[in-house]
Amino acid sequence: MKVASPLRPGSPARRGALVIMALICAVMMIPGTARADNPIVQTIYTADPAPLVHNGRVYLYTGHDEDGSTYFTMKEWRVWSSADMVNWTDHGSPMSVATFSWASADAWAGQTVYRNGRFYWYVPVKDRASGQMAIGVGVSDSPTGPFTDAIGHPLVRNGEIDPTVFIDDDGQAYLYWGNPNLWYVRLNADMISYSGSPTRIPLTTAGFGTRTGDANRPTLYEEGPWVFKRNGLYYNVFAAKCCSEFIGYSTAPGPTGPWTYRGTVMPTQGSSFTNHPGVIDFNGGSYFFYHNGALPGGGGFTRSVAVEKFSYNADGTIPTMTMTTTGAPQVGTLNPYVRQEAETIAWESGVETEPSSEGGMNVGWIENGDYVKVKGVAFGSGATSFAARVASAASGGRIELHLDSVNGSLVGTCTVPGTGGWQTWTTVTCSVNGATGTHDLYLKYTGGSGYLFNVNWWQFTGGTGDGGDTGGNLLANGDMESGTTGWGTFGGTLSSVTGSAHGGSRALSITGRTASWNGITQDVTAKLTNGKSYTTSVWVRSQSGTPSAKATLAVTADGTTNYIQLTPATVVNTGGWTKLTGTATVSWSGTLTGATFYVETASGTDGFTIDDASFQ
């Protein structure tokens, strides 16, 4: 049982019986198969998933059910992200009830949307003055926060919960929320005020199905709306009936109705009497997020988020889905030759996470036999060494590197020494032999008794990774052969193109630019070292001649963004392609919250194509 240790002053409450049960289950399931991927977070209980696609990643905003809860005891929200739908990075808690000085309790189900270069997180909390549930708005310049109270008071307050926000093609944003009713209001362009008055949507049986056995609730609608648009049709997916809930949905020709009930998305199942939907499209696939009580100790007040991939029917209807333990398939592979955060996890046994003194989060409370699984690691031609950032106030231990199962082929072992403190960091390295091709990687932690060490990040060297990137390239899919994976845009439309690549068969093209700073982007926040010099190389080709292209790094720390030009000179121009290259030192003061590599132009709005980009 994991209990607070005198070696770890200030440790959060341990998971107790939850950890014991998780370890027992892990041992039972190890032989022959890799661990299941659902629920997608195992270090804590999570609920009310709200996914957001931004710059080639899925950001997942959740609530946090406290251990041992017998009610909806929720004090903070959490953020996770993934580029491949299976390996999820823990970004900690960037917002809590305490963010809102006027709120007293209840960090319940919300949603984050992106607009005007900022991220707006709409959440229900209890208003201290009235005692009613109200909708607050957090705001941040980064998808991972920190978030601050955008307006200092409730955006709207009528005692109801579960906000969702949808921005239509014409730019009009709508806030929907409600239990027991369903409301909407038109948000202004600033996203923190609205025009007109809140309007209650008629809950008719034609619009939201027929409930039996409850004279006060004639329709199936219960709570948790999620509104989106696809192929000109508006969808409202919601938690239906109670209790236990299932997920149903309705459609409409416009954002305010009239709604027509279409049926069941996910039937009642999963050990939790509530459920909560989130639907996105990502990298050519459609995904449905939900929660259940599948983790040991789980239930209606200790829930866990999971995800399924699905395809719409030909007529636009949503198929009925059931909960699985295997979850969504991986999108692409993970590149081990760039820095990977230790808290990037497909499955784990025994570990927890905490804020790191070096920024971000680290994995901690590691005991003998604990492990982290990372799925689909592309070692390519073969790794030769492994490095990890570690700290230990005890005597340390070992990181064993196994392939495909926790006791699978051992390709390397790193010894971790005592460093004199749980946040006193050092880097350890060890040789690697036999890591070729693509495998699930298990970082198995071994040693003596008690807590062993913490891990902040890890990285392999010596081989060729996913998409042919060289070992030192911090850019995922730098040769663009995996389509748009890993890449996004600051304005304009991004596409993967063939027939005009600089190398290989694919390149990336941006069209529809309206400003010179519109460009092709990639998030590199987790990959930078403060004060380090980086060399950039990227090939650029314009639709109408060579643009005044440049590669730039936007670095945000403590709320301040600095722009570092990475390519001060054009070095080569051949066959219509211009090679931009340059070296710059990247540094910041305070806590790094966001860093984006992007290719833009000094002037003009011509579309352009890039290929074979590296940042190392």
Textual characterization of the structure:
- There is one protein chain.
- This protein is mainly beta and 616 residues long.
- The chain has three domains: 1-37 and 328-469, Galactose-binding domain-like (Jelly Rolls, Sandwich), CATH 2.60.120.260; 42-205 and 286-310, Tachylectin-2, Chain A (5 Propeller); 473-615, Galactose-binding domain-like (Jelly Rolls).
- It is built from two helices and 45 strands.
- The strands form ten sheets. Strands 1, 2, 3, 4, 5 and 24 form a six-stranded antiparallel β-sheet that branches.
- It starts with 16 loop residues before the first helix and ends with a strand.
Short description:
GO terms for molecular function: carbohydrate binding; hydrolase activity, hydrolyzing O-glycosyl compounds. Pfam families: CBM_4_9 (PF02018), CBM_6 (PF03422), Glyco_hydro_43 (PF04616). With 616 residues, the protein is mainly β.
Keywords:
616 residues, Jelly Rolls, Tachylectin-2, Chain A, six-stranded antiparallel sheet, 2 helices
